[in-house]
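$ ./design --mode recover --in tokens.txt
reading tokens...
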């Protein structure tokens, strides 16, 4: 899990409505991760892009080199009174192979790794709890590689 800072933002979504929150999940190809969230109750919008790297505003070609440290990710803006962060985590875990550190399914490379980027301590706590429950659930023979 990694703390996420919101940069260059005119106003935080939380100032519009205290129930509005943001979540970011990296789970392989972002085009594959976006659809499971689009029609969930309470999801206001989704955006795909790159996160977790050391280069500001990288291009697709730069990310594909594996040198930027970025992962493909989906950013979800949601109303927590209609869909909980825990619900979003459940969707995440059901759409990835959490044991593979080298990519997801046919997509290989560090940009396709899995990770949860949290915005506050509550999200961090819930993400860590869900990862621990998955690891202890006995479903997988290998350790959970998701960061």
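writing sequence...
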């Amino acid at each position: 899990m990694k703390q996420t800072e919101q940069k260059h933002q005119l106003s935080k979504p939380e100032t519009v409505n205290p129930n509005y929150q943001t979540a970011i999940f990296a789970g392989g190809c972002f085009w594959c991760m976006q659809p499971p969230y689009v029609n969930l109750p309470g999801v206001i919008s989704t955006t795909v892009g790159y996160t977790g790297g050391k280069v500001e505003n990288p291009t697709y070609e730069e990310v594909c080199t594996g040198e930027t440290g970025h992962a493909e990710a989906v950013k979800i803006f949601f109303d927590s009174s209609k869909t909980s962060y825990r619900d979003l985590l459940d969707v995440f875990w059901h759409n990835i192979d959490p044991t593979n550190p080298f990519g997801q399914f046919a997509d290989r490379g560090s940009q396709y790794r899995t990770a949860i980027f949290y915005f506050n301590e509550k999200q961090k706590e819930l993400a860590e709890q869900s990862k621990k429950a998955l690891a202890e659930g006995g479903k997988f023979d290998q350790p959970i590689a998701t960061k």
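exit 0
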